């Protein structure tokens, strides 16, 4: 069973948001995925990534399992050393 993802309100300077949006588009990610990618990379670099943190979802549509759910065992596993989950 998949863990529900946390939702937060994040207030950003409009110029910072625009820069993040452009960067995300360059890397074919949503702005939200780019922010999570950068936060995960910062946690890894600081040695603060929790051992029980799930992996980031891969790009594209989530795989459908036989029950019609969106998560698979592959995407719900332990994090790899790569914050992009690749």
TrEMBL record:
Renumbered residue ranges of the record's region Disordered: 48-86
Any one GO BP annotation for this protein: regulation of DNA-templated transcription
InterPro entries for the chain: Arc_rbn_hlx_hlx, Ribbon_hlx_hlx
Stored Gene3D superfamilies: Met repressor-like
SUPFAM superfamilies in the record: Ribbon-helix-helix
Protein name (record): Toxin-antitoxin system HicB family antitoxin
Species assigned in the record: Actinomadura harenae
């Amino acid at each position: 069973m998949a863990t529900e993802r946390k939702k937060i309100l994040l207030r950003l300077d409009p110029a910072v948001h625009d820069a993040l949006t452009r960067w995300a588009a360059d890397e074919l990610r949503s702005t939200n995925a780019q922010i999570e990618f950068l936060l995960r990379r910062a946690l890894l670099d600081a040695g603060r990534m929790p051992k029980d943190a799930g992996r980031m979802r891969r790009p594209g549509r989530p795989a459908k399992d036989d029950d019609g759910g969106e998560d698979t065992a592959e995407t719900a596993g332990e994090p790899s050393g790569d914050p992009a989950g690749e």
